[in-house]
Fold these 2 entries.
Entry 1:
Amino acid sequence: MVVNQKIAIICNYQLLPERVGGMDYFYWMFDKKCKENDIHIDWFFPNTSNHGEYNKLTLFSSNYENVENFFLKNHATANYTHVITHFVELCTLFFKKFKKISTAKLIAVDHNPRPLSGYSLKKQLEKKTKGILYSKYIDLFIGVSNYTVNEILKDFGKHLKNKSITIYNGVLIDSIKIREHRNSIHPKFLVASHLRKSKGIQDLIAAVALLPEEFKKSIVIDVYGDGPYKNQLLNTIAANKLEQNIILKGSVSNLNEIFCEYDYMLQPTHMECFSLSILESLAANVPVITTNVGGNEEAVLNSQNGFIFKVKDTLGLSKILEQLISGEIKIVENTSNLIVEKFSLKKMVDNHIKIII
């Protein structure tokens, strides 16, 4: 290990006490692991907070100024050995500016989903150009799924293959309550999602509306989350007279304790990178019904630990719901085993530590 390592981690990730998710736990555990290895970390976020274990981090807030610009203006000349970015746009002028004043190794972690229909031709050309201009300043690209790595190469150039790797997101398994028994008929469903159009909850509403009346009488889906699409979803639910079937529960901070109250999780998303909520649900022994986008199929194996349907296929989703309610199909295996073996938070942290030691 290099002596006196000092790392800056730049995260365009708002710290919200009411929304504690897998990345929060990753930051806390990664910071602890680095300290155990005598590695100092300065964390840069858009805002500050003391919830959870953030009070243990050396944390700098940009006060909602662009966090990359804040870092460049105030801290970039510090003697860092590594600078790691999360939720920051890849291949921008920031990386060139930083490399001009520092010899630190630059590592960019890509968490960003891509649009279902792909980028416009103009956007594709812009990304290719940025890849030519700025990718050389990034020493290592990390995708949170194989899908993400493939998209990095597609966006910025196949010449990046030799410096692009996959480190899967992971979840804190020990904090998740596990469901012991699963209802084989009339199962309970939940959704855990930010409420925006790209999450496809409007497709779920349409799928429920297609169910025969006898099935509508027994299906209830609790939706946890908030966001700008909430009112549109409420109006769509009301227009389809599904107020008793689809309940918007708002944001909660203890989903890790809630998953186990349900039999299946629904995620009809249109775009995904690698979903932590999918991993958390599976870790709770709650199978997932989701779309064939992003890295979903790297975690959800059709008919084994969940069901996959084509994105926007409301009829296909409705059929899956009908078969689950009637008991015609079901998942019987313990879905937490895969997460323990492959997608634990400990494994994620260990893999991130390896790249700096």
Entry 2:
Amino acid sequence: MILITWNIQWCRGVDGRVDPERIVCEATALGDFDVLCLQEVADNFPHPRLAGADETDQFARLASLLPGYTAIAGIAVDHPGENARRRRFGNMILSRLPVAQVFRHPLPYPADPGAPGMPRIAVEAVIDAPGGGIRIITTHLEYYSTRQRAAQVDALRMIVADGDAHARGYSVTIDDGSPFQSIARPRATLIAGDFNFEPDSTEYLRLLAPFDRGAASVQTDAAPALADAWRARHPGMPHPTTFKLYEKLRPGEPELHCDFVFADPSALARIASIEVDAATQASDHQPIVVTLE
């Protein structure tokens, strides 16, 4: 199973051209992917609201460019627009493997006066992969507000732990195809996306911290800690640049390393390789390619 995660900057390249077709072509050139996790997908935010963009529904356009894939949209921002159309912005998962269940988890958006920001979401797809079922979660955390980003990290931890508790306690209670249908949720969990923090930051360390074994909550007392897949497969090697490698707002602006793949122990054991593509300039971020066995 090959997974690619990529912040596509509303399909806008370093050259300023917005081109969903180029995004799909570049991703396909990286590998015959089974799952594509995308952040910063836009619908109807024409320039100057988003530089270079038009009214295109990129959720629909990207889905049309990948026939045979289940397209899962995670809308975080939903504004009124012209001509009775909404303006939407968020994340997306596309999978050609069977998708058993989908969850859309709104993330906390606490008030932080004076700080720019936007609502955020984590999109989860329970995928029937060749090596066994796996929870694939993609997200994009807040860029400006440390307070909001910290709250979102804590929420991600609870999403991981809650799913783990469901997996451990799974049993068939209803099997009638109704909304109450019992669907197994695997323990194997992988979270990929743009976290807007650096390796070894407070938020990074918090996300990877062990769960409190003394906690009263059944959701957290048995959940395993997450690991950084890059460090697990490239011990001693620094994280490659994933943001501001080519596109900088000012000369000399530092390169950032804010795109990650995190995994629980059972998912981590299946990761054969993880690499960052440093060549493409189809976005201001670099994609990460993960191969799972």
